Amino acid sequence: MTVTAQTRDLATTARRLTSGGRGILAADESIATMSTRLEGEGVVASETTRRDYRQLLLTAPGLARTVSGVIWCDETFGQQLTDARTFPAAAAELGVLAGIKVDTGTVPLPGTAGALVTEGLDGLGERLGSYAARGAAFAKWRAVFDVSTISPYSARVNAQALARYAALCQLHGIVPVVEPEVLAAGAHDLVDCAVATRMALDALFDELQQADVDLTGIVLKPNFVTPGLGCQDVSARTVATVTHDVLRDCVPATVPGIAFLSGGHPTDDACAFLRALNAIDTAPWAMTFSFGRALVNDALATWAGQPANVTRAQQALIANCERAAAATA
Ligand code: 13P
Fold it and tell me: How far apart are CA 3 and CA 18, in angstroms?
C-alpha cells in the first residue's frame, strides 16, 4: 500500500490507541448480551438502562488517564447522554477515541463440526462511511474460534472476512481492530491453545497481506494463550512466554500495537498476563489491553441499576483501568 496522508493518520491513531500507558475499554456488548448482563444484576434491560450503564462508564472521572478509546455497539454509538451529547462527541471532549463494533455476530459455518463464522460484510462500506462521519476513529470485528473445532478451513474463512473488513475500514479512514479470538472456555491445555492461536493468526496475516491491508494502521486484538478456564494451573510468566512466542512467530513487527481481550479471565489474572508480557522487552509492538469483562464486571455489579451507586461503580471501573494500565509499563 502506498503511503499517503490517510495511511499516516491510520498509523497515528493505531499508535495512540495502544501506547502511552493507556488501553481500550470494550463496552460493545450486543443488545442481547448487554441485556442478559443487566438482568443478571437485577436491572430491567431497556434502551435507557443500557444507555445509563454506558454513560456511567464513559463519564467515570479520570477515565482518559488510562483509556485511549472506547468501543460501543451501534445502539450506544447513536444514543445521547442525558446532557444530549452523543457518545462519540462526549468521548472526543475527553480525549478518548470512539470505536464501533461492526460485525453482526456469528453463525455456524456449514461443512464443519461446530465451527463459527462471523458475518456483517454486506453493506459494510456504507455503514463505515456513516460511522466515520459521526466520529468513529476505529472499528472492531471479532472472529471466534473454539480450540476443539478450529480447522485450517474455519481459520481461513474467518481470516478472509477480517481482511475484507480491515481493508474497508482503512478505505474509510478508520483503524480496524482485528480480533481473532480463541475462546478461553474449554477443557484444553496450554499447548492446544497455542496451536489454535497460531492457526488463527497465520491465516489472518496471510489474508491481510493479500487484501493489501496497511499493517501499520491496524490494532491486533488477540487472546492470551492459556489453558481452558479453570483447567490447568500455569503461572502468568508461562502464559506470557508462550503468548509471546506465538505472537513473535505470527505477527509482523510492522503492526504497531496489540491490545488483548480478557476472555473471561479474572481481572487479576488478565492484568498479571499483560504485566508479564510487557516484562519481555524484546517485543516490537506496544502491548496493552482491550478488556471488556475484566474492566467492567465490578462496575456493573456495584451499580446494579441504582443511581445512588453510580459514584462507587465508577470508582470500581477506574480502579480496574488503573490496574490494567499499570500492567502496560
Ligand atoms: P472480554 O475482555 O470480556 O473478553 O471482551 C473483550 C471483547 O471485546 C471481546 O470481543
Answer: 21
